[in-house]
Structure prediction request, 196 residues.
Amino acid sequence: MSDMASEIDAAGVPGQSLVAANDVTRGRDNSGSLLLGVASDDVKETLQAAGYRVEVLTGDGIAVLRSATGGLPFDVRLGNRLPGSEERHLDMTFVALFAVRGVFPEKLLNDWNRSRRFGRLFLDQATPDQEFLVLSMDVGIAGGVSAQYLRAQMEIWDALVNQLIAWLRTALPTAVEPTAKDGVGPASEDIASAKH
Prediction:
């Protein structure tokens, strides 16, 4: 095996191993300027610095951060762990759910996904009698990112959520003949009042 093969790190990037060359417990590169992975506290602090209220929920050893924007609750779910660390992750996903009453037009999903970047919109059926409209956005951290990058991703997410709310208000009524039971609403009204 060549020296190069032994120097491929966990993210598949040539160079010294992230675990060996960097202080994984700090989650930063040797210069201290890049985050190599994020912990729930990093994401919480960045959200709070941007003016969001944040609640950290843990279950099965996985932290989920819950917040809201524009009256719509959303979660931040941490993904793949940084090798050598129990707390730090190489990616995360922002997720917002809307409970769907009636039938959501597939054409609207395609229109949204065709005309927007960064986030994707899809339908998910948790149970046979309950369907959710899901907005999600993945954020990669692998290779190292700055704190400003994290803040920018949160700003993109905020803009997407607010665009979606406005878009649903205009596109949905014209796409379907509404009945008293048709529509879309936040999946959880518990924290709908939590605003940033």
About this structure: The chain has one domain: 37-186. Residues 1-25, 178-182, 188-196 have pLDDT under 50 and may be disordered. The longest strand covers residues 91-101. The chain has five helices and seven strands.
